[in-house]
Amino acid sequence: MTISHSGPCLPPSSSLPPIRSLICASEEQVSAALRGLQTLYCPLRLPILPKSSVRRKDLPAASGVSTPVPVDSGYVSQDEDEDDEAAAEEVTAAVRADPFERTFATRWLTSLISRIEEMDITEDAKAQIVDDAGFILSSFTGSMNDEEEEALTREFSFPTDLGAPIEVTLNDAPLTGTDHTDVGLQSWGASIVLSSMMCADPDRFGLTSTSLPGRPSIIELGAGTGLVSLTLAKLLPSLGVRPAGISATDYHPTVLANLQENINTNFPPGENVNMPVSAMAVDWSLPPPDLGSSSELLIAADVVYAPQHAAWLRDCAAQLITGDGAFWLIVTVRQNGKFEGIPDTVESAFMPELCPKDGQGRSFMILERNEVEKRRGVGRGDETGYNLYKIGWA
């Protein structure tokens, strides 16, 4: 089953392989069918910054940082494409809301799971198919309307070599259903994976008293629920590092309100005179001048969802980071749907001719790139892995 990136999703009843022939279906056929169902029933919301923020030519130049004007990216503009996308989404929404199609998909998925052992495919492929099918089925158990979803309290425990694990409690609030920029109300796989990696191997990220200056300033961009910031706030003191402050930043007011609630849950105000984490509103296209070149450590997890996001993020980080600071960015790899190829936009944003330059002639560039495998039970079914970047001046 092939799903067009811009066209409407096909009804399950007319596109899924027949149940009676499932055991003869190839791994590729079943995987394609599952990708189509994920696109239809498990859509990922697209965070959008306001149109007023798009006009990079109107932004003041940062001191010591030049921002070259990128050449035509080859992407169709929003104005040209938005009518077609809106029409396609209207058709897709109708299919998604059809109770007959949902029942048909449910029966197909349960039949697939029950017959998986009869299929002539590898054990790893069987496990992946069962995971993906279960993920889609689990989305059917919730309400059809996001407004009726309930908040979810999640407990995270990340092992360390220090003895006690790092534990964080988060409130994952329901998405509003009316504003796609509230995607940060929920914790995504990349933030969980990055938090786990930092706890397991802090030296790799320079989280030591010898690598970081005394009382470093740390900023998380697109913090969402604040998982990475809160993890660092609990991890660093055990490593002998006392941050001057961790700024967990985001753009959406509802996300910031939920972020503040999570900070208060993990660091109750009455017990902490000096709160180690603070919530702050930051628009990547207009970073606050009082934060300029002040951060020794920048973090961002799963925040790139459109080609322009990588460029905004690049320029914002270049203005906020110190000359010898490090920016760790983890990007989710999705191999189907509208977010396929998003990691490539990060690589494109850091092409040599587009990288910001400082007064010493250095470029703000990708220093390291590593592929991180998806972990079982972590993240959405449409996530296939992650790209981890270390970025800095060189």
TrEMBL record:
Listed InterPro entries: Methyltransf_16 (IPR019410), SAM-dependent_MTases_sf (IPR029063)
GO MF, one annotated term: S-adenosylmethionine-dependent methyltransferase activity
Region of interest (Disordered), ranges: 59-84
Pfam families: Methyltransf_16
Annotated PANTHER family: HEPATOCELLULAR CARCINOMA-ASSOCIATED ANTIGEN, S-ADENOSYLMETHIONINE-DEPENDENT METHYLTRANSFERASE OF THE SEVEN BETA-STRAND FAMILY
Name this polypeptide is given: S-adenosyl-L-methionine-dependent methyltransferase
Lineage: Eukaryota, Fungi, Dikarya, Ascomycota, Pezizomycotina
